[in-house]
Amino acid sequence: MVETTRRQAIENAASALFHAHGYSGTSVRDIARAVDIQGASLYAHVTSKQDVLWSIVEHTASRFEAAVDAIEVADPGGATFGRGVYLIAFVRAHVGVVTDDIERASVFVHEWRALQGHRRDEIVRRRDAYEERLRSVIADGVRTGTFHAVDPVATAAYILTALNGLVGWFKPDGRLSSRVIADAYADLSLRAVQASRPPS
Amino acid sequence: MVETTRRQAIENAASALFHAHGYSGTSVRDIARAVDIQGASLYAHVTSKQDVLWSIVEHTASRFEAAVDAIEVADPGGATFGRGVYLIAFVRAHVGVVTDDIERASVFVHEWRALQGHRRDEIVRRRDAYEERLRSVIADGVRTGTFHAVDPVATAAYILTALNGLVGWFKPDGRLSSRVIADAYADLSLRAVQASRPPS
Lengths: 200, 200
Prior knowledge:
Two copies of one chain form a homodimer.
Chain A lengths: L1 H20 L6 H7 L4 H7 L3 H26 L8 H18 L1 H10 L5 H28 L7 H13 L13 H16 L7
Helix pairs in contact in A: 1-2, 1-4, 1-6, 4-5, 4-6, 4-7, 5-6, 5-7, 5-8, 5-9, 7-8
């Protein structure tokens, strides 16, 4: 239990530092100082800065995947309730994960490129599979006439990067709550792609 | 003239390296190797890596500003031809600058945070002034009923980060041309905010 807590404190500190200064701009010493432990002792908990980055990015990837898995269970690919409803649920779920832990989300969005070797390959693959779910729902929506004739690849990229942009400005204590932004961004995303106006 | 060309070559090489490996992940030696000159000689052209970054970011900021200035001259704030027309022109102009030099645009989008001191302050100020033009046109459009009741700050951030996301995937020789993407992204952005369907 103590181990888990210490590890968590290290990842919290690292997330804040990576968010503020980037992965390259943060040293193991910076992380150690932030959690008030000696560098040598830190290495008992973490073998390297790469390990901390991996843990943060992998955990955040899992949170995004789990949030969308929950939608899939209720409405696989939007086949039951429609692609518009799926898109709204997807945007709300994604915004929820981003705003729930803005520092880890920021590290996930900006610093995954600093991962090395097979870990980087795995995240590239999982990011692509995640985006593919959105592409596929958009393509289905175009086919069924729910959405207008957008390009699914360009459109999924447009929507996902718009949502990820929140890591650059969202403040938990800011003027706009997570819920307000989630609703607003779901509305913008749906309107961008839908073939006709939503029922008012 | 020789000086200008050499300087240009250095900035081209630095843009490609910063785009691929980040500012922190690139050394002056890497840049020197890419332009095939000795490190010591490089310093005759460039006093520091910060100077090269500044030159790339400042030049790109000026290109974005000039592209939108051209719209302002024809249609200040969208007051003449309407906020929808202005938004379409803004998105096309922004996408044009991004896709015209994807490496410099990528450095502008991702690496401006690595600028230090008053240069960083200046870029923060200019980015905000640029985004404020979009916010202001969105606010005007909401007021005049051209756009539905979106939040101008959240919506400008949504649109701008969606457009900037192109630096992560646009390929000059890819399936979708700059022109096709500019039109598609202008269409998505206008549909996202407009109060009613465009005349067909």
